[in-house]
Amino acid sequence: MAVKITDICIACGSCIDECPVSAIVDDANNPDGQDSYYVYANKCVECVGHNDQPACASACPTDGCIVWSEVASGQPSRDNIGSDMRNGDTPVFA
């Protein structure tokens, strides 16, 4: 997946409202059954072609909640974000 929402999410819904491709679902619709928001890897395009940066992260009021994760095969990605930063720990916005 291109971005991932961590467990510090406050479930405000801002990311869901801003996602241009409807890749984010709330905890009630999380396919893993977890009590957390979820980003579908096969839908997330890191806002390439939609925004200058991932809209979910820029809308998020919680610092470090949305992190870079591995790119789904065939999906657009921000090419300057290397695999060293796509470990699920590097915030999209610090």
Automatic annotation (TrEMBL):
| UniProt-listed SUPFAM superfamilies | 4Fe-4S ferredoxins
What superkingdom heads the lineage?
Bacteria
PROSITE patterns found in the cross-reference section: 4FE4S_FER_1 (PS00198), 4FE4S_FER_2 (PS51379)
- What keywords is this UniProt entry annotated with? Iron, Iron-sulfur, Metal-binding
Please give one Pfam family short name.
Answer: Fer4_7
Recorded protein name is Ferredoxin
Answer yes or no on keyword Metal-binding: yes
Residue ranges, annotated region (Disordered): 73-94
- Domain 4Fe-4S ferredoxin-type stretches: 1-29, 35-71
Tell me, what is one Gene Ontology molecular-function annotation carried by this entry?
iron-sulfur cluster binding
